[in-house]
Amino acid sequence: MTAGDLDGVHRLSLRVYPQFFERRDVYADRLALYPQGSLVLDSEGGIGGYAVGHPARLFAPPPLDTVLGRLTEGADALYVHDVALAPELRGLGLVEGGVHALLALADRDRRPAMLVSVNGTPAFWQRFGFAPVDPARLGDKLAPYGEGAIFMLRKAKV
Asked: pTM of the entire structure?
């Protein structure tokens, strides 16, 4: 991802996740703080997909629509902030590359990976080794993601 991709990334995020609004500044922040965790899939019509992840504290995903300003001190996990693919590109196996690239960052640093699964996607994430975590461990952090949100964890690969 580059700064020139941010408008396309933001447009796609609004299209794929309208119920989870995040400002363009959130994606610019993640790109500036952890560029290796900001990936895009180019398509004929512009940005066809993206994946964003960054170091964070385990069981402490940042709130939606939050500009961090700096990486979390003492980060001990990789947070998969967002993975999105344009609806017309789904089913072609295109999203796996972005997910594997983010997980390779976690593996490189021997950190677990964590995410909040929305829109009924836990089975998708389980294919990559994620497992649901007892929601009580997160308190009210899942509330903004709505009913059905599931916090998932993938153990560190050593």
From this structure: 0.94
